[in-house]
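User:
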Amino acid sequence: MKVKMRAEVLEMALIRSNKSQGWLAEKLGVTRATISNYLRKESSVSPRVRERMLSVFTDFSFDDLFIIEKEGNKEIRPGNGKDNETYACDFCGTTFQEPTHY
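Assistant: Predicted structure:
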């Protein structure tokens, strides 16, 4: 599974806080190119960076900022307990159900 950034949420968070991608890169300990890759969904977000991101944007939850993808770029969404298999996020412990329809 891969964890990708919800680009539209990150862009709005930066705009609302009047901050730049460069500022965020410095706070997260990554390059500006890495932030750009997150926004284009070209890179997965490491657990260390996810943790730092959540500490920078305290008004947002894990589910607000990130998408969990399984093979084939299918998004794993928080479940309601009625779908097939259950997964737990290694980072935050949130339980997810593997969707049967996309």
